[in-house]
Structure formats: C-alpha cells, structure tokens
Amino acid sequence: MIVSPTRANLIGSADDWFASKGYSRNIVMSVPSFAAAPACIASTDCIAFLPSRILPNPLVRPIQLDDSPPSFDVIAAWHLRSNQDPLHKWILSLLQQEFPAQQSANQ
After folding, report:
1. Is the pLDDT of residue 106 over 60?
2. How far apart are CA 61 and CA 38, in angstroms?
3. What residues are paired with 3 via a beta bridge?
4. What residue spans define the domains of the chain?
5. Which residues form the LysR substrate-binding domain (predicted)?
6. Does the predicted model carry a pTM greater than 0.70?
7. How many helices (H) and strands (E) does the chain have?
C-alpha cells in the first residue's frame, strides 16, 4: 500500500531505498491520506510506512526496522493572491504556532 494523494506513477524515494537492499515494492493499493491507511491495512495483508503520529492505533502494529527509508519534507505553499485572505492568514498562523522552528525565511 502507498499513500499518495496526487502521484500518478507511484514511484518515489522509497523505491530507491528498497532497491539498495535488493528488494522491490509490489504496490497493490493507493490511498489519498495517512488517515485512511490504518483501516485499509487492518482489512488486508498490506504493509505501509506511516508517520509515528498515526500511533497508537488499534488497527495497525508498528514494526521496528534496523534501517529506515529516507524522510521527506512537508511544505505549505500558496498563491500570492491568498496572502490577504483572512481564512488563509488564520490557517497559516496556526501552522506557524504549531511548527515555529520549521518556518521558512521566504514567508
């Protein structure tokens, strides 16, 4: 299973990581969000890499690995016309409060 809201080809850095270990993935399902993954995992024999914030969850069981695939950055991006939108400003302020250390100099 893979979590991919937009990628059409479903190929990514995890594939390089698997290849470096002599393995390849067999993607049988794609879900649009990490929140959707636990229910799908619980009803199949699929496995997935999920963020630790999903745990604890009675639908999934963590497996400790000796090595992990590469991490990735999550970014917030928007069109300049949204800079003056009150709702956009409010959501951005919530993100800045929650993640102050990760703020970009390009705000």
Report:
1. no
2. 9
3. 31
4. 2-54, 73-107
5. 7-99
6. no
7. 3, 2
